[in-house]
Amino acid sequence: MKYRHSVHVKTLVAAALLAGAATLPSCDDVIFDSEGDCSSHFYATFRYDANVLQSDAFGRQVTGVALYVFDQTGSLVGEYHHDRQPSADNNYRIPLDLPPGTYDMLAWCTGTPVHEQPIAFAINESQNPSAMSALSAAHPLENAPDGALYAAHDIVPLFHGISRGVVFPDKPGDIDVEPIYLTKDTNRINISLVNMGGQAMDPDDYTVELTGRHSQLDHLNNLVEDSPEHLYRPWATLPLRVETGNGRADGDGEEVNNGMLARLTMGRLIADKDHRLTVRRNDTGETVISMPVMGALIQAMDLYPSMKTPQQYLDCVDAYNFELFLDPNGAWIKTRVFINGWRVVPDQTEDI
């Protein structure tokens, strides 16, 4: 027989008998090559429970994974790119062909967009990055004729996760190392605007915009401070017919669309970074609504009592439904604003 190590087997057996020990072979003992695989096999696993249900939704929402592993000197030692099909459970893991040690891991993951022709965050140095800090993310912006930067497409869902000082233990077998917990960095915004007098509204008569500086994220998932200011514009606008109890428009006996819905997607929301929602009439240029958004969003946090901080709430909620109302003359009713069904009071110190 061929031994794994050169040892005095008879001496070891005699010593075991004298001690009265009856032990089975293991990878720490003297064993034959045929006894099995005594190497370590490491696997990366992922969790996405930073959501309103606070349950792991990785299996259902994540369809693409880019994972980067760095050693303690900051050198890239592993890079993995995988696509996957959504699943009801989360048994997904990536085999890591790495030796025991301590590593830092960063993941940028993607999901499935809700609308056709989306844009996507691009990962800087996505192949063979020079350092973890190089792995920033940015989505494209377009130039308007007036020079303004804007995004007017759905955005492929983006998730970020980072784990530092992850120990890959020096022991045999299949080992799931510490999970990487993800944060979702994209948000769907639905803005409905309704004329309470029943007057007809045409979505083409209005421009809806949200200001932002959310097109760039660094490797730690923070907004890049010098990100350019830009606008988020709807990738879809739809007419609405809403019963207001005030009869039909213009008394002509015909049902009309007295509202509109604007659908937008924007990047990660940060509690101390405000945004402004603006609605203008296209025929006159008149500003109908100008509303700071962040304070109103945080008021709706009361809907989610399990959320401990504004940032946790903003990271866990990924869809916001705004309901705004106009009076019969087309003026904004500032005291009637709802976000996700919760009545909020926007800043009342401004003229609009």
What does this entry look like structurally?
- This protein has 352 residues and is mainly beta.
- The protein is 8% helix and 37% strand.
- The strands form four sheets. Strands 1, 2, 3, 4, 5, 10, 11 and 12 form an eight-stranded mixed sheet that branches. A six-stranded mixed sheet has the order 8-9-16-14-19-20. It has a six-stranded mixed sheet with strand order 17-18-13-21-22-23.
- The longest helix is centred in the N-terminal third of the chain and has 11 residues.
- The radius of gyration is 28 Å and the shape is elongated.
- It starts with 8 loop residues before the first helix and ends in an 8-residue tail after the last strand.
- The N terminus is likely disordered.
Quick overview of this protein structure:
The chain is mostly beta strands and 352 residues long. It is 8% helix and 37% strand. The protein is elongated and about 80 Å long.
Main features:
single chain; 352 residues; mainly beta; Immunoglobulin-like; eight-stranded mixed beta sheet; six-stranded mixed beta sheet; 4 helices; 23 strands; 8% helix; elongated
Helix fraction bin: under 10%
CA distance, first residue to last residue: 89 Å
Please give the radius of gyration in angstroms: 28 Å
SSE string? HEHEEEEEEEEEEEEEEEEEEEHHEEE
Count of distinct structural domains: 3
Count of extended strands: 23
CATH topology of the largest domain: Immunoglobulin-like
Number of helices: 4
**Coarse morphology:** elongated
Question: Structural class, from helix and strand content?
Answer: mainly beta
Q: What is the CATH C-level name of the largest domain?
A: Mainly Beta
CATH hierarchy: architecture of the largest domain = Sandwich
Indicate the multimeric state.
single chain
**Low-confidence runs (pLDDT<50, min 5 residues)?**
1-25, 30-34
How much strand? 35-45%
